[in-house]
Specification:
Blueprint lengths: L18 H6 L8 H21 L6 H13 L1 H10 L2 H25 L2 H29 L2 H29 L7 H19 L18 H9 L6 H28 L5 H27 L7 H26 L11 H30 L5 H22 L6 H22 L1 H16 E6 L10 E5 L6 H8 L4 E6 H4 L4 H7 L3 E3 L6 H17 L3 E4 L17 H8 L4 E7 L24 E7 L10 H12 L4
């Protein structure tokens, strides 16, 4: 089960603000801002030195090899992060960064590929330690409902630093040699700024001082990381993060190969880098809008399916280029380069869309005592995946084959995500559908508990009441529904995968009512979930609230939890209501962007949760608007 998307925050300032403003407010937070500066300084130096090294005969293949080796030793980094205090570890890493930068710049000045390669190898290993410590620190310092915003800013800051460090060097080209003194000064300044920022971070306790350090990270990966008590969705998140970086790098490399003959390698590299950076920023902005700054697992399959679509377009494009000698385009006046760049932009944006969610899943659901080691598993998986993908994408393979493979893998990622958390994905799709059709007004939502069990009761106006409530409330709700709905071909499938609880009347099926429904409700409440009820038991024919039945009273008597009364307004007389005849029989009643309101009242203690009392409250909340 994925994390509760709306957990109690330790930082109350900013509650109720728009998502973008709330996330940007973290830049003033002393728990977060120093960590962002530490990461940006390290990534900036890495980008600057890697791009500068190309001018001393360090090939991209060598840089790629260094990167792979650093990822493979990340298992050791994860163990160190768990065993020792993370803030002190960050300070040590940043202090070591200064002599490493000096070694790299000395190699640049001497045109020594050996010195530069050694320096880059050490710097990449330091980055591995920093990445592991950053994730663990973020999960310790931030509340769960701040983690999405924190990860969005970290990804954006890392991308900005990488492009800011590498792009100027690419633009300078072969004249980097005369700028080595300036490169040294800039890198040292960035490292010192990062070190000073690390001293502002609050220290904490080590996660597991008794952890043994093993220099064979694959042993720990097999024994503990993937085979012992790993929650299914967190395991998916490990592979999901690896998929994002793997697919993006493969796509970037293949486009460089595919389009290289048509344009200068240097100008093409700049184009690809800028487009990829813009895609990251666009994806993060879209993530803020769609998730409202909260955990939203439904973004994962949506992004993966979108990636498959645009990768398939690249398959067609590569075929056209191969058959026409590089001059084909399916749209008059648009060059193949621009079409490929547009596909790259969309692919990266859609992948970035789900990246903060995957990071939060890893940071919030992994065992705090082994979090560093667990997160390092993702880096090892990425390294192994890159080695396998590198072999599969040798120059002998056509770009179209690689693109087709990426499209298939993207669809498999979407299918795996659905298998992990179908109900969260359906809830998000419901949110998209309802917000595209209705304008939903919300009132009193502060009464809905951010965590823990509760029973939500509401009036029953139409056939889409539960769907509207699911779309309005971010936290997953398990509705109790008539068992006949579960038996319908399409709707039944969707509600079953939404984890609704079927119920029948005692005359129809006593076992389903007594043994199954109420027992499942009690089990869900004990697990801290929300239960949604329509105590009337049927949709109103008159617009007035029907008599509340006894079921809600029995539920809170057997499992005492708060009852939250709610009222829907604006659905009576809609296409889905029974006003003036059967529901869904008059298309003329379909009104696009009609106003619907969900009003939430204060929680009622379980001892006061009688049907009569709850009906009075719901009637008052509804008022004269039905």
């Amino acid at each position: 089960m994925a994390i509760d998307p709306v957990s109690t925050s330790r930082a109350k300032s900013g509650q109720g603000w728009p998502p973008g403003v709330r996330i940007l407010a973290l830049l003033r937070d002393r728990r977060f801002c120093p960590l962002l500066v530490v990461q940006m300084s390290a990534v900036f130096n890495a980008g600057l030195l890697v791009t500068s090294s190309i001018n001393v005969d360090v090939t991209l293949l060598q840089v790629f090899g260094i990167f792979i080796v650093a990822l493979l030793v990340s298992g050791v980094a994860g163990q160190v992060v768990d065993k020792y205090e993370n803030v002190r570890l960050l300070r040590i890493v940043k202090a070591f960064e200064v002599p490493v930068v000096g070694l790299a710049c000395l190699g640049l000045a001497m045109q020594s590929a050996v010195l530069v390669t050694c320096a880059l190898g050490v710097l990449t290993v330091l980055l591995t330690f920093l990445t592991n410590a950053r994730h663990v620190l973020l999960s310790r310092l931030m509340a769960e409902d701040e983690l999405v915003g924190g990860n969005i800013l970290l990804v954006a800051g890392g991308s900005l630093s990488l492009i800011g460090g590498g792009l100027p060097v690419v633009l300078i080209g072969d004249g980097v040699g005369r700028f080595v003194p300036w490169i040294f000064l800039v890198c040292v300044a960035a490292a010192l700024v990062g070190y000073m920022a690390s001293r502002e971070l609050p220290a904490g306790r080590p996660a597991d001082t008794g952890a043994a350090i093993s220099f064979n990270p694959l042993t720990w990966l097999v024994r503990n990381g993937l085979a012992h008590g790993v929650e299914r969705t967190s395991l998916f998140a490990l592979f999901g993060v690896a998929w994002f970086w793997l697919s993006s790098m493969l796509l970037f490399a293949q486009l460089w190969r595919l389009l290289g003959p048509e344009s200068g390698a240097q100008s093409l590299l700049v184009q690809l880098a800028v487009v990829a950076f813009c895609g990251v920023i666009a994806g993060l902005c879209l993530s803020v809008v769609l998730s409202e700054g909260l955990f939203e697992f439904g973004l994962v399959p949506v992004g993966a399916v979108g990636q498959a679509f645009f990768t398939l377009d690249l398959v067609f494009l590569s075929t056209e280029l191969a058959t026409s000698g590089g001059a084909a385009t399916d749209l008059p006046g648009i060059s193949p380069n621009w079409r490929a760049l547009a596909d790259l932009f969309a692919f990266v944006a859609l992948g970035t869309l789900s990246l903060p969610t995957l990071y939060v899943q890893l940071q919030a659901r992994s065992d705090p005592r082994q979090r560093g080691r667990f997160l390092s598993c993702g880096l090892i998986i990425l390294a192994v995946s890159l080695l396998i993908a590198g072999g599969a994408a040798l120059p002998t393979r056509g770009a179209g084959t690689v693109f087709a493979g990426l499209a298939v893998c993207a669809l498999l990622v979407a299918a795996w995500a659905y298998r992990c958390e179908a109900h969260l994905i359906l809830r998000f799709l419901t949110w998209l559908l309802i917000h595209s059709f209705y304008r939903i007004g919300k009132s009193g939502f502060e009464h809905i508990p951010r965590s823990g069990p509760a029973v939500l009761v509401c009036n029953h106006v139409s056939f889409v009441d539960s769907v509207v409530i699911m779309a309005a409330i971010r936290r997953p709700i398990r509705f109790v529904m008539d068992h006949r709905i579960h038996q319908t071909p399409v709707v039944g499938f969707l509600f079953r995968h939404s984890r609704t609880i079927p119920i029948a009347t005692a005359k129809e099926d006593p076992a389903m009512k007594e043994e199954a429904a109420f027992e499942e409700v009690a089990r869900a409440l004990k697990n801290g979930e929300l239960i949604g009820l329509f105590p009337e038991g049927r949709i109103t024919h008159t617009g007035e609230i029907n008599h509340f039945r006894y079921g809600v009273g029995r539920i809170v008597t057997e499992t005492p939890v708060p009852v939250v009364p709610m009222a829907l307004r604006g659905l009576w007389g809609s296409f889905f209501s029974r006003r003036d005849g059967p529901a869904m029989s008059r298309p003329t009643l379909l009104r696009w962007l009609a106003k619907v309101e969900l009003v939430v009242g204060g929680p009622v203690a379980p001892e006061n949760g009688t049907p009569e009392h709850l009906q009075e409250i719901v009637t008052e909340l509804r008022g004269g608007m039905v």
